[in-house]
Amino acid sequence: MSRELRAAFAAVALALGGAAQADESSVRLAQADGVERVQASCAICHSLDYIVMNSPFQDRGGWEKTVNKMVKVMGAPLTPEDSAAIVDYLAAHYGKPQ
Amino acid sequence: MDRRKFLLRTSGTVAGSLLLPRLGARIASADELPAGTVASSALDALPGKRPLVRRTFRPPNFETPIELFREAYTPNDAFYVRWHSAVPEVALADWRLRVGGPAAQRQREYAHADIVRRFKRHEVTAVNQCSGNRRGLFAPHVPGVQWGFGAMGNAVWGGVRLKDVLEDAGLAAGALEVVANGSDVPMLTGPDFVKSLPMWKALDPDTLLAFEMNGEPLPALNGGPARIVAPGWTATYWVKAVEDLTVTDKPFDGFWMKTAYRVPKGLFGASGFQSQDTEQNSPITSIRVNSLIVTPAPGAMLPAGRRVEVMGIAWDGGSGIRKVEVSLDGGASWRGARLGRDLGRYSWRQWRYDFKPQAGSVTVLARAVARDGATQSEKLIHNPAGYHHNVVQRADYHVA
Questions:
Q1: Regarding the domain delimited by B96-283, which CATH topology (the fold level of the hierarchy) does it fall under?
Q2: Tell me: the pLDDT tens digits for B163-190?
Q3: How many domains is chain A partitioned into structurally?
Q4: Residue A78 counted as domain residue
Q5: Which residues have a Cβ under 8 Å from the Cβ of B293 and sit 6 or more positions away?
Q6: What are residue B335's DSSP bridge partners?
Q7: CB count, 10 Å around CB of B113?
Q8: pLDDT digits over B2-32, tens only?
Q9: Do strands B242-248 and B177-182 pair parallel, antiparallel, or not at all (unpaired)?
Q10: Residue A7: pLDDT band by 50, 70, 90 thresholds?
Protein backbone atom coordinates (compact mmCIF):
# COMPACT_ATOMS: atom_id res chain seq x y z
CA MET A 1 0.00 0.00 0.00
CA SER A 2 1.35 3.41 -0.90
CA ARG A 3 1.95 6.07 1.72
CA GLU A 4 -0.88 8.15 0.22
CA LEU A 5 -3.27 5.24 0.50
CA ARG A 6 -2.17 4.48 4.01
CA ALA A 7 -2.83 8.09 4.96
CA ALA A 8 -6.20 8.02 3.26
CA PHE A 9 -7.05 4.83 5.09
CA ALA A 10 -6.10 6.35 8.40
CA ALA A 11 -8.30 9.35 7.61
CA VAL A 12 -11.27 7.17 6.83
CA ALA A 13 -10.70 4.97 9.86
CA LEU A 14 -10.79 8.14 11.91
CA ALA A 15 -13.96 9.32 10.19
CA LEU A 16 -15.61 5.94 10.75
CA GLY A 17 -14.30 5.33 14.26
CA GLY A 18 -17.41 4.81 16.36
CA ALA A 19 -19.18 5.46 13.10
CA ALA A 20 -22.89 5.92 12.88
CA GLN A 21 -24.76 2.77 12.04
CA ALA A 22 -25.19 1.97 8.39
CA ASP A 23 -28.17 3.71 6.87
CA GLU A 24 -29.84 2.08 3.89
CA SER A 25 -31.69 5.25 2.89
CA SER A 26 -28.40 6.32 1.27
CA VAL A 27 -29.05 3.83 -1.55
CA ARG A 28 -30.21 5.80 -4.61
CA LEU A 29 -31.92 4.01 -7.45
CA ALA A 30 -32.24 5.45 -10.95
CA GLN A 31 -35.09 7.96 -10.84
CA ALA A 32 -37.35 6.82 -13.64
CA ASP A 33 -40.74 5.30 -14.35
CA GLY A 34 -41.44 2.45 -11.98
CA VAL A 35 -38.96 3.41 -9.29
CA GLU A 36 -41.65 3.99 -6.66
CA ARG A 37 -43.11 0.55 -7.29
CA VAL A 38 -39.64 -1.02 -7.07
CA GLN A 39 -38.87 0.77 -3.81
CA ALA A 40 -42.22 -0.06 -2.23
CA SER A 41 -42.10 -3.72 -3.26
CA CYS A 42 -38.48 -4.75 -2.85
CA ALA A 43 -37.68 -2.79 0.30
CA ILE A 44 -40.32 -4.69 2.29
CA CYS A 45 -37.72 -7.41 2.77
CA HIS A 46 -34.31 -6.10 1.78
CA SER A 47 -32.29 -2.97 1.18
CA LEU A 48 -32.18 -1.71 -2.38
CA ASP A 49 -28.43 -2.13 -2.73
CA TYR A 50 -29.26 -5.76 -3.62
CA ILE A 51 -30.42 -4.39 -6.97
CA VAL A 52 -27.36 -2.24 -7.66
CA MET A 53 -24.98 -4.97 -6.47
CA ASN A 54 -26.48 -7.44 -8.93
CA SER A 55 -25.94 -5.19 -11.94
CA PRO A 56 -25.38 -4.71 -14.76
CA PHE A 57 -24.92 -8.32 -15.75
CA GLN A 58 -28.45 -9.74 -15.74
CA ASP A 59 -30.45 -9.51 -18.93
CA ARG A 60 -34.22 -9.19 -18.92
CA GLY A 61 -34.62 -12.95 -18.54
CA GLY A 62 -32.29 -12.90 -15.56
CA TRP A 63 -34.25 -10.16 -13.80
CA GLU A 64 -37.49 -11.97 -14.61
CA LYS A 65 -36.14 -15.07 -12.91
CA THR A 66 -35.09 -13.05 -9.87
CA VAL A 67 -38.47 -11.33 -9.53
CA ASN A 68 -40.29 -14.66 -9.96
CA LYS A 69 -38.18 -16.18 -7.21
CA MET A 70 -39.06 -13.30 -4.91
CA VAL A 71 -42.78 -13.88 -5.56
CA LYS A 72 -42.94 -17.69 -5.69
CA VAL A 73 -40.30 -18.62 -3.13
CA MET A 74 -39.89 -15.62 -0.85
CA GLY A 75 -43.54 -14.59 -0.80
CA ALA A 76 -43.27 -11.05 -2.16
CA PRO A 77 -46.87 -9.77 -2.33
CA LEU A 78 -46.80 -8.58 -5.95
CA THR A 79 -49.55 -8.56 -8.52
CA PRO A 80 -48.62 -9.69 -12.04
CA GLU A 81 -48.77 -5.98 -13.02
CA ASP A 82 -46.30 -5.11 -10.24
CA SER A 83 -43.93 -7.86 -11.36
CA ALA A 84 -44.08 -6.79 -14.99
CA ALA A 85 -43.41 -3.14 -14.13
CA ILE A 86 -40.53 -4.09 -11.84
CA VAL A 87 -38.93 -6.30 -14.48
CA ASP A 88 -39.26 -3.47 -17.03
CA TYR A 89 -37.56 -1.05 -14.66
CA LEU A 90 -34.75 -3.44 -13.68
CA ALA A 91 -34.06 -4.47 -17.26
CA ALA A 92 -33.99 -0.85 -18.39
CA HIS A 93 -31.83 0.59 -15.61
CA TYR A 94 -29.93 -2.34 -14.11
CA GLY A 95 -29.88 -4.73 -17.06
CA LYS A 96 -27.02 -6.02 -19.12
CA PRO A 97 -26.07 -3.37 -21.70
CA GLN A 98 -27.35 -4.42 -25.13
CA MET B 1 -16.65 9.33 -6.68
CA ASP B 2 -16.88 9.95 -2.97
CA ARG B 3 -14.00 9.28 -0.66
CA ARG B 4 -15.34 6.06 0.77
CA LYS B 5 -15.91 4.53 -2.60
CA PHE B 6 -12.52 5.66 -3.75
CA LEU B 7 -10.94 4.01 -0.73
CA LEU B 8 -12.85 0.84 -1.25
CA ARG B 9 -11.74 0.60 -4.83
CA THR B 10 -8.18 1.31 -3.96
CA SER B 11 -8.02 -0.90 -0.89
CA GLY B 12 -6.87 -4.48 -0.92
CA THR B 13 -6.20 -5.82 -4.33
CA VAL B 14 -7.43 -3.13 -6.63
CA ALA B 15 -4.98 -0.29 -6.25
CA GLY B 16 -3.16 -1.16 -9.45
CA SER B 17 -6.16 -0.81 -11.66
CA LEU B 18 -6.66 2.81 -10.74
CA LEU B 19 -3.22 4.13 -9.97
CA LEU B 20 -1.09 2.25 -12.43
CA PRO B 21 -1.37 1.19 -16.03
CA ARG B 22 -2.88 -2.24 -16.49
CA LEU B 23 -0.43 -5.05 -16.91
CA GLY B 24 -0.78 -7.76 -19.50
CA ALA B 25 -1.82 -10.53 -17.16
CA ARG B 26 -5.28 -10.40 -15.70
CA ILE B 27 -5.45 -10.62 -11.96
CA ALA B 28 -8.29 -12.25 -10.10
CA SER B 29 -8.89 -9.10 -8.15
CA ALA B 30 -11.83 -7.17 -6.86
CA ASP B 31 -11.88 -4.97 -9.92
CA GLU B 32 -13.60 -7.88 -11.63
CA LEU B 33 -16.57 -7.44 -9.38
CA PRO B 34 -19.68 -6.23 -11.20
CA ALA B 35 -19.65 -2.45 -11.70
CA GLY B 36 -22.84 -2.13 -9.66
CA THR B 37 -21.23 -3.98 -6.76
CA VAL B 38 -18.26 -1.65 -6.74
CA ALA B 39 -20.58 1.37 -6.92
CA SER B 40 -22.85 0.27 -4.08
CA SER B 41 -20.23 -1.10 -1.66
CA ALA B 42 -18.40 0.93 0.97
CA LEU B 43 -16.39 0.51 4.12
CA ASP B 44 -18.92 0.68 6.91
CA ALA B 45 -19.09 -0.33 10.56
CA LEU B 46 -21.86 -2.44 12.08
CA PRO B 47 -22.31 -2.15 15.86
CA GLY B 48 -19.38 -3.87 17.54
CA LYS B 49 -17.47 -4.24 14.30
CA ARG B 50 -14.67 -2.25 12.74
CA PRO B 51 -15.30 -0.96 9.21
CA LEU B 52 -15.85 -3.89 6.84
CA VAL B 53 -16.78 -3.95 3.17
CA ARG B 54 -20.52 -3.54 3.07
CA ARG B 55 -22.18 -5.44 0.25
CA THR B 56 -25.76 -5.02 1.52
CA PHE B 57 -27.38 -3.15 4.38
CA ARG B 58 -30.39 -5.39 5.09
CA PRO B 59 -30.03 -8.21 5.76
CA PRO B 60 -26.45 -7.30 6.59
CA ASN B 61 -23.76 -8.79 4.38
CA PHE B 62 -20.30 -7.41 5.12
CA GLU B 63 -16.94 -8.88 4.16
CA THR B 64 -13.51 -8.63 5.72
CA PRO B 65 -10.93 -6.43 3.94
CA ILE B 66 -8.09 -8.62 2.71
CA GLU B 67 -5.36 -6.86 4.68
CA LEU B 68 -6.98 -8.08 7.91
CA PHE B 69 -6.09 -11.65 6.93
CA ARG B 70 -2.53 -10.92 8.03
CA GLU B 71 -3.57 -12.19 11.44
CA ALA B 72 -3.63 -15.95 12.03
CA TYR B 73 -6.95 -15.65 13.83
CA THR B 74 -9.47 -13.20 12.43
CA PRO B 75 -10.51 -10.81 15.22
CA ASN B 76 -14.19 -11.02 16.14
CA ASP B 77 -14.77 -7.38 15.26
CA ALA B 78 -13.25 -7.98 11.82
CA PHE B 79 -15.08 -11.22 11.07
CA TYR B 80 -17.43 -11.16 8.08
CA VAL B 81 -21.19 -11.01 8.53
CA ARG B 82 -23.73 -12.88 6.42
CA TRP B 83 -27.48 -13.22 7.07
CA HIS B 84 -30.47 -14.37 5.04
CA SER B 85 -32.91 -12.36 7.15
CA ALA B 86 -32.91 -10.06 10.19
CA VAL B 87 -30.29 -10.80 12.84
CA PRO B 88 -31.98 -12.30 15.93
CA GLU B 89 -30.92 -10.97 19.31
CA VAL B 90 -31.21 -13.64 21.99
CA ALA B 91 -29.68 -13.20 25.44
CA LEU B 92 -27.64 -16.16 26.61
CA ALA B 93 -29.74 -16.35 29.81
CA ASP B 94 -32.94 -16.70 27.76
CA TRP B 95 -31.48 -19.07 25.23
CA ARG B 96 -32.76 -22.67 25.12
CA LEU B 97 -31.84 -25.58 22.88
CA ARG B 98 -34.46 -28.17 22.07
CA VAL B 99 -33.26 -31.58 20.89
CA GLY B 100 -35.53 -34.33 19.67
CA GLY B 101 -37.21 -35.61 16.55
CA PRO B 102 -38.48 -38.89 15.11
CA ALA B 103 -35.05 -40.54 15.32
CA ALA B 104 -34.15 -39.32 18.81
CA GLN B 105 -34.94 -41.46 21.84
CA ARG B 106 -35.82 -38.54 24.10
CA GLN B 107 -36.82 -34.92 23.79
CA ARG B 108 -34.51 -32.62 25.69
CA GLU B 109 -34.31 -28.95 26.44
CA TYR B 110 -31.17 -27.28 27.70
CA ALA B 111 -30.23 -23.88 29.02
CA HIS B 112 -26.63 -22.77 28.53
CA ALA B 113 -25.83 -23.64 32.16
CA ASP B 114 -27.15 -27.21 31.66
CA ILE B 115 -24.87 -27.66 28.69
CA VAL B 116 -21.82 -26.30 30.47
CA ARG B 117 -22.49 -28.57 33.47
CA ARG B 118 -23.27 -31.71 31.54
CA PHE B 119 -20.83 -31.77 28.63
CA LYS B 120 -17.07 -31.49 28.28
CA ARG B 121 -15.73 -28.32 26.73
CA HIS B 122 -14.07 -28.68 23.35
CA GLU B 123 -12.30 -26.29 20.98
CA VAL B 124 -11.46 -26.37 17.32
CA THR B 125 -9.62 -23.89 15.12
CA ALA B 126 -11.34 -23.69 11.78
CA VAL B 127 -11.88 -21.56 8.72
CA ASN B 128 -15.46 -20.41 8.34
CA GLN B 129 -16.04 -19.65 4.67
CA CYS B 130 -19.28 -18.64 3.02
CA SER B 131 -20.27 -20.98 0.18
CA GLY B 132 -20.40 -17.95 -2.10
CA ASN B 133 -17.04 -16.44 -1.20
CA ARG B 134 -15.53 -14.96 -4.43
CA ARG B 135 -18.88 -15.27 -6.26
CA GLY B 136 -18.44 -11.68 -7.41
CA LEU B 137 -15.36 -12.76 -9.40
CA PHE B 138 -17.28 -15.28 -11.50
CA ALA B 139 -17.15 -14.73 -15.25
CA PRO B 140 -19.84 -14.60 -16.41
CA HIS B 141 -21.34 -13.16 -13.23
CA VAL B 142 -24.15 -14.99 -11.46
CA PRO B 143 -26.75 -13.36 -9.21
CA GLY B 144 -26.39 -13.48 -5.44
CA VAL B 145 -24.35 -11.59 -2.88
CA GLN B 146 -21.35 -10.42 -4.92
CA TRP B 147 -18.58 -11.35 -2.53
CA GLY B 148 -14.94 -10.61 -3.18
CA PHE B 149 -12.28 -12.55 -1.25
CA GLY B 150 -13.40 -11.67 2.26
CA ALA B 151 -16.45 -13.80 3.10
CA MET B 152 -14.32 -15.96 5.35
CA GLY B 153 -12.30 -15.95 8.55
CA ASN B 154 -10.30 -18.21 10.84
CA ALA B 155 -11.14 -18.54 14.52
CA VAL B 156 -10.88 -20.72 17.58
CA TRP B 157 -14.40 -21.96 18.23
CA GLY B 158 -15.27 -23.08 21.74
CA GLY B 159 -18.24 -25.06 22.97
CA VAL B 160 -19.26 -28.68 23.31
CA ARG B 161 -19.31 -31.55 20.89
CA LEU B 162 -22.58 -31.81 18.99
CA LYS B 163 -22.14 -35.57 19.36
CA ASP B 164 -22.34 -35.37 23.15
CA VAL B 165 -25.57 -33.39 23.00
CA LEU B 166 -27.14 -35.73 20.45
CA GLU B 167 -26.13 -38.83 22.39
CA ASP B 168 -27.64 -37.37 25.53
CA ALA B 169 -30.97 -37.29 23.70
CA GLY B 170 -30.20 -40.75 22.33
CA LEU B 171 -30.10 -41.76 18.69
CA ALA B 172 -32.69 -44.23 17.45
CA ALA B 173 -32.05 -46.81 14.75
CA GLY B 174 -32.51 -45.16 11.37
CA ALA B 175 -31.16 -41.75 12.42
CA LEU B 176 -30.18 -40.19 9.09
CA GLU B 177 -29.77 -36.42 9.43
CA VAL B 178 -29.66 -33.77 12.14
CA VAL B 179 -31.74 -30.74 11.21
CA ALA B 180 -30.61 -27.45 12.75
CA ASN B 181 -32.84 -24.39 13.01
CA GLY B 182 -31.93 -20.98 14.36
CA SER B 183 -34.09 -18.24 15.82
CA ASP B 184 -33.86 -16.16 12.65
CA VAL B 185 -37.19 -16.03 10.85
CA PRO B 186 -37.92 -15.42 7.18
CA MET B 187 -39.39 -12.22 5.88
CA LEU B 188 -43.02 -12.70 4.83
CA THR B 189 -43.82 -16.28 3.81
CA GLY B 190 -40.36 -17.22 2.56
CA PRO B 191 -38.69 -20.45 3.66
CA ASP B 192 -37.12 -20.52 7.12
CA PHE B 193 -33.34 -20.95 7.03
CA VAL B 194 -32.94 -24.55 8.19
CA LYS B 195 -30.06 -26.89 7.37
CA SER B 196 -29.28 -30.53 7.92
CA LEU B 197 -26.10 -32.53 8.43
CA PRO B 198 -25.56 -36.22 7.73
CA MET B 199 -25.12 -38.27 10.93
CA TRP B 200 -21.42 -38.92 10.30
CA LYS B 201 -20.70 -35.19 10.15
CA ALA B 202 -22.96 -34.36 13.09
CA LEU B 203 -21.16 -37.01 15.17
CA ASP B 204 -17.66 -35.98 14.09
CA PRO B 205 -15.70 -35.16 17.27
CA ASP B 206 -14.78 -31.73 15.81
CA THR B 207 -18.35 -30.70 15.02
CA LEU B 208 -19.46 -28.34 17.78
CA LEU B 209 -22.26 -26.50 19.37
CA ALA B 210 -20.20 -23.33 19.90
CA PHE B 211 -20.72 -20.46 22.30
CA GLU B 212 -17.34 -18.83 21.93
CA MET B 213 -15.24 -17.33 19.20
CA ASN B 214 -11.58 -16.57 19.89
CA GLY B 215 -12.21 -16.88 23.62
CA GLU B 216 -15.09 -14.38 23.68
CA PRO B 217 -18.84 -14.94 23.68
CA LEU B 218 -20.01 -15.47 20.11
CA PRO B 219 -21.22 -12.08 18.81
CA ALA B 220 -24.88 -12.00 17.74
CA LEU B 221 -23.75 -10.86 14.28
CA ASN B 222 -21.78 -14.12 13.99
CA GLY B 223 -24.49 -16.38 15.35
CA GLY B 224 -24.51 -15.92 19.12
CA PRO B 225 -25.55 -17.18 21.59
CA ALA B 226 -24.81 -20.52 19.91
CA ARG B 227 -24.02 -21.78 16.45
CA ILE B 228 -23.11 -25.03 14.79
CA VAL B 229 -19.43 -25.36 13.88
CA ALA B 230 -18.98 -27.85 11.04
CA PRO B 231 -15.24 -27.64 10.34
CA GLY B 232 -14.22 -28.19 6.74
CA TRP B 233 -17.73 -27.59 5.41
CA THR B 234 -18.89 -24.27 4.02
CA ALA B 235 -20.56 -21.90 6.44
CA THR B 236 -24.12 -22.60 5.30
CA TYR B 237 -24.07 -25.56 7.70
CA TRP B 238 -22.78 -23.50 10.62
CA VAL B 239 -26.33 -22.58 11.61
CA LYS B 240 -26.37 -19.35 13.62
CA ALA B 241 -28.48 -18.62 16.70
CA VAL B 242 -29.33 -22.32 16.73
CA GLU B 243 -32.21 -23.30 19.01
CA ASP B 244 -33.58 -26.54 17.66
CA LEU B 245 -31.99 -29.86 16.65
CA THR B 246 -34.22 -32.52 15.10
CA VAL B 247 -32.89 -36.01 14.40
CA THR B 248 -34.70 -37.37 11.37
CA ASP B 249 -34.96 -40.71 9.64
CA LYS B 250 -35.74 -39.08 6.29
CA PRO B 251 -33.83 -36.57 4.16
CA PHE B 252 -34.82 -33.07 5.21
CA ASP B 253 -36.45 -31.34 2.25
CA GLY B 254 -36.51 -27.63 3.18
CA PHE B 255 -35.75 -25.05 0.49
CA TRP B 256 -32.25 -24.28 1.77
CA MET B 257 -31.27 -27.95 1.42
CA LYS B 258 -33.32 -29.23 -1.49
CA THR B 259 -33.13 -26.21 -3.80
CA ALA B 260 -30.45 -23.78 -2.63
CA TYR B 261 -26.76 -24.35 -1.87
CA ARG B 262 -26.42 -27.01 -4.55
CA VAL B 263 -23.81 -27.83 -7.17
CA PRO B 264 -24.15 -29.92 -10.34
CA LYS B 265 -23.69 -33.61 -9.55
CA GLY B 266 -20.08 -34.75 -9.84
CA LEU B 267 -18.64 -31.34 -10.76
CA PHE B 268 -16.71 -31.15 -7.50
CA GLY B 269 -16.48 -34.84 -6.60
CA ALA B 270 -18.61 -36.77 -4.13
CA SER B 271 -20.56 -34.65 -1.66
CA GLY B 272 -20.26 -36.99 1.32
CA PHE B 273 -23.94 -36.30 1.91
CA GLN B 274 -25.68 -39.09 0.00
CA SER B 275 -29.12 -38.64 1.52
CA GLN B 276 -29.22 -35.17 -0.10
CA ASP B 277 -27.79 -36.14 -3.51
CA THR B 278 -30.16 -36.25 -6.48
CA GLU B 279 -29.61 -37.39 -10.08
CA GLN B 280 -28.86 -33.80 -11.10
CA ASN B 281 -27.10 -32.17 -8.18
CA SER B 282 -25.58 -32.39 -4.73
CA PRO B 283 -25.44 -30.13 -1.72
CA ILE B 284 -22.29 -28.04 -1.50
CA THR B 285 -20.25 -29.52 1.38
CA SER B 286 -16.44 -29.48 1.77
CA ILE B 287 -14.36 -26.37 1.25
CA ARG B 288 -12.07 -26.73 -1.77
CA VAL B 289 -8.35 -26.19 -1.37
CA ASN B 290 -7.54 -22.53 -1.82
CA SER B 291 -5.02 -19.78 -1.10
CA LEU B 292 -4.85 -16.01 -0.98
CA ILE B 293 -2.04 -13.50 -1.37
CA VAL B 294 -2.46 -11.06 1.53
CA THR B 295 0.59 -8.80 1.31
CA PRO B 296 1.84 -6.93 -0.55
CA ALA B 297 -1.54 -5.95 -1.99
CA PRO B 298 -1.71 -6.85 -5.68
CA GLY B 299 -1.05 -3.72 -7.70
CA ALA B 300 1.43 -2.34 -5.18
CA MET B 301 4.78 -0.86 -6.15
CA LEU B 302 7.76 -3.02 -5.09
CA PRO B 303 11.36 -1.82 -4.71
CA ALA B 304 13.63 -3.13 -7.48
CA GLY B 305 16.48 -5.41 -6.45
CA ARG B 306 15.45 -5.53 -2.82
CA ARG B 307 14.11 -8.54 -0.97
CA VAL B 308 10.31 -8.65 -0.94
CA GLU B 309 8.30 -11.01 1.20
CA VAL B 310 4.95 -12.21 -0.13
CA MET B 311 2.67 -13.40 2.66
CA GLY B 312 -0.50 -15.37 2.22
CA ILE B 313 -2.77 -18.03 3.62
CA ALA B 314 -3.88 -21.47 2.42
CA TRP B 315 -6.63 -23.82 3.58
CA ASP B 316 -8.83 -26.71 2.53
CA GLY B 317 -11.70 -28.81 3.83
CA GLY B 318 -9.70 -30.49 6.56
CA SER B 319 -6.97 -32.66 5.06
CA GLY B 320 -4.53 -29.86 5.80
CA ILE B 321 -2.06 -28.01 3.60
CA ARG B 322 0.86 -30.01 2.20
CA LYS B 323 2.57 -27.16 0.37
CA VAL B 324 2.12 -23.80 -1.25
CA GLU B 325 4.00 -23.06 -4.44
CA VAL B 326 4.79 -19.74 -6.06
CA SER B 327 5.59 -19.02 -9.69
CA LEU B 328 7.20 -15.84 -10.97
CA ASP B 329 7.24 -16.91 -14.64
CA GLY B 330 3.58 -17.34 -15.43
CA GLY B 331 3.39 -20.92 -14.18
CA ALA B 332 6.35 -22.42 -16.07
CA SER B 333 8.21 -23.17 -12.84
CA TRP B 334 7.11 -23.33 -9.22
CA ARG B 335 9.02 -23.06 -5.96
CA GLY B 336 7.86 -23.91 -2.49
CA ALA B 337 6.83 -21.20 -0.06
CA ARG B 338 7.70 -21.48 3.65
CA LEU B 339 4.73 -22.71 5.63
CA GLY B 340 3.94 -21.11 8.97
CA ARG B 341 2.90 -22.92 12.11
CA ASP B 342 0.27 -25.63 11.73
CA LEU B 343 -2.70 -24.46 13.82
CA GLY B 344 -4.77 -27.53 13.02
CA ARG B 345 -6.05 -29.22 9.91
CA TYR B 346 -9.17 -27.05 9.66
CA SER B 347 -7.28 -23.81 10.19
CA TRP B 348 -5.77 -21.81 7.42
CA ARG B 349 -1.99 -21.84 7.29
CA GLN B 350 0.19 -18.83 6.69
CA TRP B 351 2.92 -18.98 4.05
CA ARG B 352 5.75 -16.69 3.02
CA TYR B 353 7.93 -16.40 -0.06
CA ASP B 354 10.93 -14.12 -0.54
CA PHE B 355 12.25 -12.86 -3.82
CA LYS B 356 14.11 -9.93 -5.37
CA PRO B 357 12.08 -8.41 -8.20
CA GLN B 358 13.81 -6.71 -11.14
CA ALA B 359 12.65 -3.30 -12.35
CA GLY B 360 9.57 -3.47 -14.53
CA SER B 361 6.74 -5.66 -13.48
CA VAL B 362 6.22 -9.07 -11.95
CA THR B 363 3.27 -11.41 -11.67
CA VAL B 364 3.14 -13.71 -8.67
CA LEU B 365 1.09 -16.88 -8.91
CA ALA B 366 0.31 -18.88 -5.79
CA ARG B 367 -1.26 -22.30 -5.50
CA ALA B 368 -1.87 -24.57 -2.56
CA VAL B 369 -1.73 -28.35 -2.53
CA ALA B 370 -3.67 -30.17 0.16
CA ARG B 371 -2.54 -33.28 1.99
CA ASP B 372 -5.22 -35.23 0.13
CA GLY B 373 -3.45 -34.28 -3.12
CA ALA B 374 -6.06 -31.78 -4.34
CA THR B 375 -4.82 -28.52 -5.80
CA GLN B 376 -6.42 -25.29 -6.97
CA SER B 377 -8.14 -24.94 -10.34
CA GLU B 378 -6.32 -23.25 -13.20
CA LYS B 379 -9.64 -22.25 -14.75
CA LEU B 380 -12.90 -21.35 -13.08
CA ILE B 381 -15.31 -24.27 -12.72
CA HIS B 382 -18.44 -22.30 -13.49
CA ASN B 383 -21.65 -23.33 -11.74
CA PRO B 384 -25.04 -21.62 -11.53
CA ALA B 385 -24.88 -20.51 -7.89
CA GLY B 386 -21.28 -19.26 -7.98
CA TYR B 387 -19.65 -21.65 -5.51
CA HIS B 388 -16.13 -23.04 -4.97
CA HIS B 389 -14.08 -20.33 -6.70
CA ASN B 390 -10.54 -21.56 -6.09
CA VAL B 391 -8.74 -20.43 -9.21
CA VAL B 392 -4.96 -19.97 -8.87
CA GLN B 393 -4.47 -16.31 -8.02
CA ARG B 394 -2.33 -14.01 -10.17
CA ALA B 395 -1.08 -10.86 -8.47
CA ASP B 396 0.56 -8.18 -10.61
CA TYR B 397 3.09 -5.76 -9.14
CA HIS B 398 5.05 -2.87 -10.49
CA VAL B 399 8.74 -2.76 -9.63
CA ALA B 400 10.85 0.38 -9.56
A1: Sulfite Oxidase; Chain A, domain 2 (3.90.420)
A2: 999 999 999 999 999 999 999 999 899 9
A3: 1
A4: yes
A5: B310, B311, B312, B364, B366, B393, B395
A6: B326
A7: 10
A8: 333 333 433 333 333 333 333 333 334 445 9
A9: antiparallel
A10: very low
Residues of A whose CB is below 8 A from B296: 1
Per the model's pLDDT, the better-predicted residue between B270 and B2 turns out to be B270
**CATH number for domain B290-399, candidates 2.60.120.200, 1.10.10.60, 2.10.109.10, 2.60.40.650:** 2.60.40.650
Examine residue A16 and state whether it is found in any structural domain, yes or no: no
What are the residues whose beta carbons fall under 8 Å from the beta carbon of A84, sequence distance 6 or more?
Answer: none
- Cross-chain Cβ contact B143/A62 below 8 Å: yes
Which residues of chain B lie closer than 8 angstroms to A14, CB-CB?
none
> What is the mean pLDDT of the segment spanning A2-18?
40
In a domain, A6, yes or no: no
Task: Give the pLDDT confidence of A18-30 residue by residue, as tens digits.
Answer: 344 459 999 999 9
Please, is B90 exposed, middle or buried when counting C-beta atoms within 10 Å of its C-beta (0-12, 13-18, 19+)? middle
Instruction: CATH number of the domain at A53, please.
Output: 1.10.760.10
Amino acid (1-letter code) at residue B230: A
Q: A81 to chain B nearest CA, in Å?
A: 20
Say whether A46 and B58 touch across the interface (CB within 8 A): yes
A13 and B51: CB-CB below 8 Å? Answer: yes
Distance CA B271, CA B192 (A): 23
Check whether B132 has a pLDDT greater than 50.
yes
Selecting from B36, B47, B296 the residue whose C-beta is nearest the C-beta of A55 gives: B36
Residue window 34-93, chain A: list those with CB within 8 Å of chain B: 44-47, 49-58, 62, 66, 73-77
ipTM: 0.91
Asked if A10 has any chain B CB less than 8 Å from its own CB, the reply is no
